[in-house]
Amino acid sequence: MFQLIQRGQIYADQHNWPVIIHSVTSQIVRYWRQGRVNTASIDRFNSAFEPLEHHEAAQIRAELETAEHLKKLRAMKQVA
């Protein structure tokens, strides 16, 4: 299936992290993931990434933030 990849679109990477498209050429895709710009070839991007709707991306971000918060709380509990 052909899908146009454009700046600002939201995808999920192979680890289910939401990523935002930064720029696209005929050979590579640059995307933001956790505040960093990463690069993938078009072939790898097409095989490893899937498009997300905005509400799906928001839900995934909320779940990831909750998991990170719980991890920090557990670490604080172990220190105390």
Question: What tags apply to this protein structure?
Answer:
single chain, 30% strand, 5 strands, alpha+beta, 80 residues
| Total DSSP E strands | 5
Structural class: alpha+beta
Report, as a whole number of angstroms, the end-to-end distance: 54 Å
- Main sheet summary: 5 strands, antiparallel
Word description of this protein:
This protein has one domain (10-79). 41% of the residues lie in helices and 30% in strands. It contains two helices and five strands. A five-stranded antiparallel beta sheet has the order 4-3-2-1-5. A hairpin with a 5-residue loop joins β1 (10-12) and β2.
Topology:
Blueprint (H helix, E strand, L loop, with lengths): L9 E3 L5 E7 L3 E6 L2 E6 H7 L1 E2 L2 H26 L1
In short:
The protein has 80 residues and is an alpha+beta fold.
